[in-house]
Design brief:
It contains eight helices and eight strands, in the order βαβαββαβααββααβα. The chain is α/β, with parallel strands linked by helices. Helix content is 47%, strand content 20%. The protein is globular, with a radius of gyration of 17 Å.
Length: 182
């Protein structure tokens, strides 16, 4: 790969960092922790690199830090995004949820011009901040007490019951494959 690439990540519990590290290693890119960079350094990344790949978690339907990342890095053809999440793998429902999530985070123009990828990861209650743990506890309670549960409701209830990790290097293949396409 001839481009100078930076993988910039924002990780709360380690899943996004894991994916950023394996992407960086796979494509020979520099790895940069978004939270440890000054605003000045972040602003200069677009002039220092041919491509910025931003990765973060899905948090309450939104990509954590994406608005700020777009303000620093957005240049068509020079910016990509990946998001990690714990969404159950029920295909039809997952596709609908992902479509809504992308639309919540990108304009129609951005969806057409910014390559974007979703990687399954998991949940780590032990590393979550208190506010996130409380939000998840409320979500679990809501699911547990819901009447007439759908198949998706039962899958979500099971998926958020405890910490788990389903991260896999294979999930980055669509992104790395996209980069290898001329």
């Amino acid at each position: 790969m001839n481009k100078k690439i930076a993988v910039v990540y924002k990780s709360a519990t380690g899943f996004t960092k894991y994916y950023a590290e394996i992407i960086s290693e796979e494509i020979g890119a520099e790895l940069i922790d978004f939270m440890s960079c000054s605003k000045n350094k972040l602003r200069n990344l677009t002039s220092d690199y041919d491509l910025i790949i931003y990765g973060s978690r899905l948090h309450a339907g939104f990509i954590d830090g994406l608005k700020k990342a777009k303000s620093f890095f957005r240049r068509d053809g020079k910016f990509m995004v990946f998001v990690t999440g714990a969404m159950p793998n029920a295909e039809a429902e997952k596709d609908n949820i992902l479509e809504r999530m992308w639309k919540n985070n990108f304009t129609t123009e951005e969806l057409e011009n910014i390559p974007h990828f979703y990687f399954q990861s998991g949940l780590c209650y032990e590393k979550m901040k208190l506010g996130d743990r409380l939000m998840m506890k409320a979500f679990r309670w809501m699911l547990k007490n819901k009447k007439d549960k759908t198949t998706s409701d039962r899958a979500y209830e099971k998926a958020v019951a405890s910490s788990y990790d389903i991260s896999s290097k294979k999930f980055i293949e669509p992104l790395t494959g996209y980069l290898k396409t001329p």
